[in-house]
Amino acid sequence: MYFGASASALQRLVEQLKLEAAVERIKVSQAAAELQQYCMQKACKDALLVGEPRSCALF
Amino acid sequence: MATEALHENETLASLKSEAESLKGKLEEERAKLHDVELHQVAERVEALGQFVMKTRRTLKGHGNKVLCMDWCKDKRRIVSSSQDGKVIVWDSFTTNKEHAVTMPCTWVMACAYAPSGCAIACGGLDNKCSVYPLTFDKNENMAAKKKSVAMHTNYLSACSFTNSDMQGCDKKAMVWDMRSGQCVQAFETHESDINSVRYYPSGDAFASGSDDATCRLYDLRADREVAIYSKESIIFGASSVDFSLSGRLLFAGYNDYTINVWDVLKGSRVSILFGHENRVSTLRVSPDGTAFCSGSWDHTLRVWA
């Protein structure tokens, strides 16, 4: 994977990986719950989801 | 000289092993927080009913493959670009063409509508991004007012008036901090090129569509892939994806001419839409979420609702 990579390119890769490793993460269960909550909150405004009655639809 | 080379090799070797161990650590950290699957969390959510979505308008006029389209903020105008070298602005209610610009090249791969509604940007094989102010004055030549805003060393594949801070390159999706110019997160779980990425409406996640025939959802705060949208029967690449207003639905256009509609939370397909007669190349939900538009290699655009 690193075949032919120069020392400076590898150095940059190491720095990049350190940056990515340092990201603060939350549990999937919490992230998933929040995604779900957003969907539920906005559901009634989502015309494609609830299906607008054709009489007042734009198209 | 020999000792210099030896030193360089040692440095390379130690950098490589550091990179490997950092990658391993990244996977470990991500795995620690992988306590549940999104669809498990969504088990108690009511399943979606049957969807009746149909083509409500067909926009005909391009002489070749439609490559890109964008909605105007007024939720009715659409700009599209094509391999025929033309960029057309449509009134999607009436299907009338309001403006047409002939580009100096074919394969206009990217186009975008300005938030003000007063201009469009486009580009392709001419290697630049040009902005055209839109005018209704019949005496004005739109092409004469064009401004080049960016010169690239190769073809323009995407342009946007907003800070589009995501990029799918090869199998990797990268999230960039526009202020520092740094890549802050990277995700590499697709098995083939990513063709399209789009933010979830809350901004906390994004979806991707790939040549590996899957679409995937990545949560930015959990820093990992949280869902895969796929079926054994779907074997052609997904070219473009977009979310419905609430983020519950993911619309994806495929190279097998279909559009699949996915339940983002449960991971299941809720509908398959037929109509296009060639690959779907571009897809965007309208600004108010009441419809979505797809563009295809069959030279047409379709508005669905």
UniProtKB/TrEMBL annotation, chain A:
The keyword Membrane applies. It is a lipid-anchor. Residues 3-59 form the G protein gamma domain. One of its GO terms (biological process) is G protein-coupled receptor signaling pathway. It is found in: Cell membrane. GO terms for cellular component: heterotrimeric G-protein complex. Its main location: membrane. GO terms for molecular function: G-protein beta-subunit binding. InterPro entries: G-protein_gamma (IPR001770), G-protein_gamma-like_dom (IPR015898), GGL_sf (IPR036284). The keyword Cell membrane applies. It holds the Pfam family G-gamma. Keywords: Cell membrane, Lipoprotein, Membrane, Methylation, Prenylation, Transducer. Belongs to the G protein gamma family. G proteins are composed of 3 units; alpha, beta and gamma. Guanine nucleotide-binding proteins (G proteins) are involved as a modulator or transducer in various transmembrane signaling systems. The beta and gamma chains are required for the GTPase activity, for replacement of GDP by GTP, and for G protein-effector interaction. This is Guanine nucleotide-binding protein subunit gamma. It comes from Rhinopithecus roxellana (Golden snub-nosed monkey).
TrEMBL record, chain B:
PROSITE patterns: WD_REPEATS_2, WD_REPEATS_REGION. Pfam families: WD40_Gbeta. Keywords: Coiled coil, Repeat, Transducer, WD repeat. WD repeats lie at residues 59-91, 187-228, 240-272, 273-305. CDD domains: WD40. InterPro entries: G-protein_beta_1-5, WD40/YVTN_repeat-like_dom_sf, WD40_G-protein_beta-like, WD40_PAC1, WD40_repeat_dom_sf, WD40_rpt. The keyword Membrane does not apply. SUPFAM superfamilies: WD40 repeat-like. Residues 9-39 form a coiled coil. It comes from the Eukaryota. GO terms for biological process: signal transduction. Signal peptide: none annotated. The keyword Protease does not apply. Belongs to the WD repeat G protein beta family. This is G protein subunit beta 5.
